Amino acid sequence: xxxxxxxxxxxxxxxxxxxxxxxxxxxxxxxxxxxxxxxxxxxxxxxxxxxxxxxxxxxxxxxxxxxxxxxxxxxxxxxxxxxxxxxxxxxxxxxxxxxxxxxxxxxxxxxxxxxxxxxxxxxxxxxxxxxxxxxxxxxxxxxxxxxxxxxxxxxxxxxxxxxxxxxxxxxxxxxxxxxxxxxxxxxxxxxxxxxxxxxxxxxxxxxxxxxxxxxxxxxxxxxxxxxxxxxxxxxxxxxxxxxxxxxxxxxxxxxxxxxxxxxxxxxxxxxxxxxxxxxxxxxxxxxxxxxxxxxxxxxxxxxxxxxxxxxxxxxxxxxxxxxxxxxxxxxxxxxxxxxxxxxxxxxxxxxxxxxxxxxxxxxxxxxxxxxxxxxxxxxxxxxxxxxxxxxxxxxxxxxxxxxxxxxxxxxxxxxxxxxxxxxxxxxxxxxxxxxxxxxx
Length: 440
Known about the structure:
Layout: H1 6-18, E1 23-28, E2 34-36, E3 39-40, H2 47-53, E4 61-66, E5 71-77, H3 82-88, H4 93-100, E6 105-108, H5 112-120, E7 125-128, H6 135-148, E8 159-162, H7 164-171, H8 176-199, H9 206-219, E9 224-225, E10 230-233, E11 254-258, E12 261-263, E13 266-267, E14 271-275, H10 282-300, H11 308-325, H12 333-338, E15 379-382, E16 385-387, E17 403-405, E18 408-412, E19 417-419, H13 428-435
Parallel strand pairs: 1-7, 5-6, 7-8
Antiparallel strand pairs: 1-4, 2-3, 4-5, 9-12, 10-11, 11-14, 12-13, 15-18, 16-17, 18-19
């Protein structure tokens, strides 16, 4: 059960309304997505819509109205339907939604087209997701146009704004309850990663580790994984978005697992890299410990006031120096970075926002285009990696085929940071001990 209650959603709506002078805000639920023919993917609510009201059903709308005299919230939902309840499960319906959600009014979604013109009347601003092409938004635009062209209507929609930036800015700072939801997701993800380390052995398939992790997630109540799991043995780790997960795990190889679950729609995002047979080779240990050192140093630098752009540059400096120390690159670090030579082996960013989406689409820059400074309550992943393809003959043979990424979820606090995933083992000694700890 979610730790969020109606007080949290009401507070968010008030914050959103306080960021606009007046107007009408329309947020739509996610649409069901077809998997094949007449089958659908499991439903997952639109994050912005959910953030503002907590309603999980499809075919729903949230409308917020603000004028100089008043503000109100309106929820449009599917009515209860016995046939739908028989085939697909019971919906809450209008009456129960009004009783369960702290909104001013709840209506049958099928009345929206009749009511939206009156809702828009006498307002000069409409706030929507500009890239939402649903029928609900098209209907609102049509009604706005009709009011604009109607004689005697003195006040009508004159400007349409993008509401997503306003909501995503609010989502940057996580509440105490949101952090607890993320911690719960990480708690289950920790169990899953430790399970994978314990059972891993040569001859298994990548998908077997994935299946065991999925079992841990679902048997502990997580309804979904945060993203498609990456279980990449050996050289597969050097394909950053490898999700095939069909190969056999080989003795002497590493396996990189980037997998995590959601809890009440809040994501976790964790990567660990460990030896298939439970023992790092000398070369694997050398690269691994250098990547881990980079991660620890980057995390240690996180605190309020630090800019994400600076953190990215700092991480690239550290990784470039690692590549020089390993003999993979040669020359002056600054010159190598200017030519982006290090990007061949460390191509991705140091991290991303995380929350209701595993890649939270919150802004990274302010209205002037300047990188945002960290503020207490932000959550960012930190995930340095080095990837050396097996066919790269410019690199010492002992390093070829090694791909390593280490990822944790970091909360910015008033005094610095908190590593939310510190319970998931990641030192060489801890990983090797975890790999030895499996008991039937």
